[in-house]
């Protein structure tokens, strides 16, 4: 039997051997037999820290009682029926499979009638979604991992695949052996930067300045692709005039990049025929996250470095099925599948689901749900396979907000989330090994997830949402024989998008066990884009002043990010000694020069203060830009420090720009 790793967007395929031991499948295109320490340890986590019984209580001060699923569903249905749809929200997760997402989205938007159905992918990928939609007209990643094997130059900006996408990094290393050049742009000299041909230690939040300097120079040297621009794009004049009005050395000063390093970057761009730019949270999780994405995608359109083998702007998805959530329509800004809220789409979806309850417009995004709860505007919050109290920014605010919701339901396979103390109902779901369905990795590859353990009486996520739908009286709409039936209904729905680019309807559920299916392979090959004019949109953007710029009271800037052996709240990984032995989970990185100035020694506990909270942890010397600190998100307390600011377009939190000061722990 074969299945897929449930940790990251690479989507490594595993063969399940005797005793549940896992091994990478050599013939599979996502990993070619590769795996990482975290993924291969999944079989050790199957029964670690599990939640196995439905639990219910009246008030959060009370102890939980064990109940049957049905009792819990009845209480949830009653609470939904006793309020209005706009006071109900569903908070989903990139851990859910496509079938789980599909049924949850159908329940929320189709039958409860609330538009407030969003996913934790909002906190990592929303800026890329909006970036692609504003430029290409569709949420579509136009690069595949196999393009790494064909490209000549890979620029990684705000991405650390050596820790976050380990098997992809193995592929990059192999490609380097045949001559691939790698540039890493990051305020920290990460494990990825260590392996780069050129490392550019950019000042945090100044990526647009560097990208503008590069685009400006490419235009000045005639290295843009005039034919491509004329045939397939719009907006060149504004971009050209805007860029040429900027001053290169001012841009480089602002970005903190020396002119020598910049010349090396320009030379690499000039000398290489095929170029990919890959990015992840360093660009996305920012107040200008959408604009960061617009700048990268515009750079590739400007130079015609797109829609050819080995070229393109490559957003690297973090979670195993964040892509699936986007495809199914699990974001609050989408109605269903790839259909936005338009009158025509509304009519199609209403007919498909046979419902008259669809909300008229998009709803609250992930962090906005908590803002709404803080104002006392939510009565029911259903959270599935994720831990918003831990992962949302400005945690004190989030704790106050969630405590004001009269009914919080947590669906989770694990014990010990930070959200659990605020829940009134906790429903066990099934984790990897017990879960079945399909998931989509970071390059549109759809793979079958197979269960190799018996889940007994426990329910898949989709079954939980279907049973809530039935408890609300919608028996027929949620009467599915099995997971395959859900998948096939979802497949039919993907036919509703006009251009039929989301051709998941062509996949075969049985065949997916062994053969992956890559959707949208022909979507952009003719360079006809999904905008009204069918032309890609070039955008001119500039860096805006940031309200959290360091100053006298808060002189340091806090960055956050992932460490290799941690995933999510550590519900699985933090339990495994063998992973913890590799990498500590709690520390703060500080530049040795800053530490010396403040008299801080390596390993010393220091207290970090922001406007939002404090955190004490161990200092670790590292090579990052002076004046910045880095705390990994494996420290569950990190969001006591971060600011609750969100990108105005994508609504993605700005986890990478909080001003802080350091005190020595007493
Ligand atoms: Fe799992 Fe990602 Fe590691 Fe592959 S690279 S084994 S998908 S965590």
Radius of gyration from the alpha-carbon trace, in angstroms: 24 Å
Tell me the strand percentage band: 15-25%
How many β strands by DSSP? Answer: 26
Helix percent band: 25-40%
Query: What's the average pLDDT?
Result: 95
Query: What's the CATH C level of the largest domain?
Result: Alpha Beta
Would you spell out the secondary-structure blueprint of this structure?
Blueprint: E1 2-4, E2 13-16, E3 22-24, H1 37-40, E4 55-56, E5 65-66, H2 69-81, E6 88-92, H3 98-112, E7 117-119, H4 126-136, E8 153-157, H5 161-164, H6 166-177, E9 181-185, E10 198-200, H7 207-220, H8 226-232, E11 233-234, H9 236-244, H10 248-255, H11 259-271, E12 275-279, H12 281-284, H13 289-302, E13 312-315, H14 322-328, H15 343-353, H16 366-374, E14 380-384, H17 388-391, H18 395-402, E15 407-412, E16 425-428, E17 437-440, E18 445-449, H19 461-471, H20 483-493, E19 517-518, E20 536-537, E21 556-561, H21 577-580, E22 588-590, H22 592-598, E23 605-610, E24 614-621, E25 628-632, E26 658-664
Parallel strand pairs: 6-7, 6-14, 8-9, 8-12, 9-10, 11-20, 12-13, 14-15, 15-16, 21-25, 22-24
Antiparallel strand pairs: 1-2, 2-3, 4-5, 4-16, 17-18, 18-19, 21-26, 22-25, 23-24, 23-26
Helix pairs in contact: 2-19, 3-14, 3-19, 3-20, 4-13, 7-10, 7-13, 16-18
The chain binds iron/sulfur cluster.
């Amino acid at each position: 039997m074969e299945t897929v790793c449930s940790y990251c967007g690479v989507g490594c395929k595993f063969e399940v051997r005797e005793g549940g031991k896992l091994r990478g499948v050599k013939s599979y295109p996502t990993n070619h037999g590769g795996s990482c320490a975290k993924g291969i340890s999944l079989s050790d986590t199957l029964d670690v820290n599990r939640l196995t019984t439905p639990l219910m209580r009246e008030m959060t001060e009370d102890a939980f009682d064990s109940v049957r699923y049905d009792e819990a569903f009845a209480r949830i249905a009653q609470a939904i029926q006793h309020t209005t749809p706009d006071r109900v929200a569903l908070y989903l997760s990139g851990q859910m499979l496509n079938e789980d997402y599909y049924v949850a989205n159908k329940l929320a938007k189709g039958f409860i009638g609330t538009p407030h159905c969003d996913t934790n992918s909002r906190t990592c990928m929303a800026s890329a979604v909006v970036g692609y939609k504003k430029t290409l007209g569709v949420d579509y990643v136009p690069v595949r991992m196999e393009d790494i094997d064909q490209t000549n130059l890979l620029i990684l900006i705000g991405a650390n695949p050596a820790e976050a996408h380990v098997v992809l990094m193995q592929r990059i290393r192999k490609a380097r052996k045949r001559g691939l050049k790698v540039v890493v742009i990051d305020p920290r000299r990460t494990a990825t930067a260590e392996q780069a041909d050129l490392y550019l230690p950019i000042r945090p939040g100044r990526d647009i300045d560097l990208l503008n300097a590069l685009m400006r120079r490419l235009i000045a040297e005639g290295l843009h692709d005039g034919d491509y621009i004329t045939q397939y794009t719009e907006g060149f004049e504004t971009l050209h005039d805007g860029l040429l009005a900027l001053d290169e050395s001012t841009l480089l000063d602002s970005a903190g990049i020396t002119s020598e390093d910049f010349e090396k970057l320009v030379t690499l761009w000039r000398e290489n025929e095929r170029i990919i730019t890959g990015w992840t949270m360093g660009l996305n999780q920012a107040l200008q996250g959408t604009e960061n994405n617009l700048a990268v995608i515009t750079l590739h359109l400007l130079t015609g470095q797109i829609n050819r083998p080995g070229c393109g702007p490559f957003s690297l998805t973090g979670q195993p099925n964040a892509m699936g959530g986007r495809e199914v329509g699990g974001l609050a800004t989408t109605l269903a599948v790839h259909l936005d809220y338009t009158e025509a789409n509304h009519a199609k979806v209403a007919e498909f689901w046979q419902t008259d309850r669809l909300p008229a417009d998009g709803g609250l995004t992930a962090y906005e749900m908590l803002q709404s709860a803080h104002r006392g505007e939510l009565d029911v919050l259903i959270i599935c396979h994720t831990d918003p109290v831990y992962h949302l920014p400005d945690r004190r605010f989030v704790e106050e907000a969630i405590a004001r919701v009269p009914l919080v339901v947590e669906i989770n396979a694990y014990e010990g989330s930070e959200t659990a103390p605020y829940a009134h109902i906790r429903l066990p779901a099934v984790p990897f090994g017990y879960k079945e369905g399909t998931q989509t990795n970071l390059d549109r590859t759809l793979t079958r997830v197979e269960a190799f353990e018996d889940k007994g009486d426990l329910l898949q996520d989709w079954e939980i949402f279907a049973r809530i739908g039935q408890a609300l009286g919608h028996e027929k709409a949620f009467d599915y024989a099995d997971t395959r039936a859900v998948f096939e209904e979802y497949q039919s729905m993907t036919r509703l998008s006009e251009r039929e680019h989301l051709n998941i309807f062509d996949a075969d559920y049985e065949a997916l066990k062994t053969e992956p299916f890559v959707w949208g392979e022909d979507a952009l090959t003719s360079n006809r884009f999904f905008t009204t004019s069918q032309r890609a949109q070039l955008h001119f953007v500039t860096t805006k002043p940031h309200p959290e710029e360091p100053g006298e009271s808060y002189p340091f800037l806090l960055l956050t990010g992932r460490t290799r052996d941690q995933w999510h709240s550590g519900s699985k990984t933090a339990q495994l000694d063998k992973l913890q032995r590799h990498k500590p989970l709690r520390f703060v990185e500080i530049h040795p020069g800053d530490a010396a100035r403040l008299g801080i020694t390596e390993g010393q506990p220091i207290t970090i203060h922001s406007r939002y909270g404090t955190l004490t942890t161990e200092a670790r010397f590292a090579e990052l830009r002076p004046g910045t600190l880095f705390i990994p998100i494996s420290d569950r307390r990190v969001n006591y420090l971060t600011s609750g600011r969100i990108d105005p377009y994508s609504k993605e939190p700005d986890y990478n720009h909080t001003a802080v000061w350091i005190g020595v722990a007493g």
